[in-house]
Design brief:
209 residues, mainly alpha, two-stranded antiparallel sheet, 9 helices
């Protein structure tokens, strides 16, 4: 999934602003619609991690052992809590991957909408790229709205506030296989910060347009 998102990002990044290929423009327009739907789904997953965790299926012996050690998940309606995630290493890794995917989706949307051109104000604003729904409602079956971005921003801030007193090298989750490294506070925080930055850039520029 991340590779597909990165492919669309590469297309958007390599498309010239002055004389874009009409075919590429149409492809990016369709990808924007799907990306906004995807972002809405990611918002639900990140704000209901325990619900998503119920669908986890171990793929390796190491993952099965970790899953068996996890205590029962709390209510799926509770917000993301880093302390709670430390007791659920597989869920913590899932949340980390979802934040990373959210950041990639947002980076692609920012690139397609030429958000940095809006911030710098050096070129004519791409009015046709004002695609975000400007209301506070969050409807899972609809594309992401401004409310979706705000909810995801609050979720990301909750994650960043949780490990304030934790050492940067403290492990959040052990490796799920011999190919992986432990997920620590530093890596988790950096991913969340990047996601928050992308959210703010996209939300502000969409409002400006």
């Amino acid at each position: 999934m991340e590779q597909v998102v990165n492919l669309f990002y590469a297309h958007a990044e390599s498309t010239p602003t002055a004389f874009p290929n009409p075919v590429v423009v149409k492809v990016l327009r369709v990808s924007t619609t799907h990306a906004l739907m995807h972002l809405q789904q990611l918002n639900y997953a990140l704000t209901h991690p325990n619900h998503i965790a119920n669908f986890l299926e171990p793929m390796t012996t190491e993952e099965r052992a970790l899953l068996e050690k996890e205590p029962p998940a709390a209510s799926s309606l509770l917000p993301v809590n880093m302390t709670d995630l430390q007791k659920h290493p597989l869920t913590a890794r899932l949340v980390h991957r979802l934040f990373r995917l959210s950041s990639s989706v947002l980076s692609t949307l920012i690139c397609i909408s030429r958000a940095y051109d809006v911030l710098l104000g050096e070129q004519e604003w791409p009015i046709q790229e004002a695609v975000i729904i400007p209301h506070s409602k969050v409807v899972p079956g609809e594309p992401a709205s401004l409310g979706t971005l705000l909810k995801l921003e609050n979720c990301t801030l909750d994650v960043l506030r949780s490990p304030v007193d934790c050492p940067a090298g403290q492990a959040i989750a052990p490796p799920a296989s011999i190919k992986e490294t432990p997920l620590d506070v530093r890596e988790g925080s950096l991913t969340a910060r990047k996601t928050l930055e992308m959210l703010l850039v996209y939300a502000v520029t969409q409002l400006a347009i």
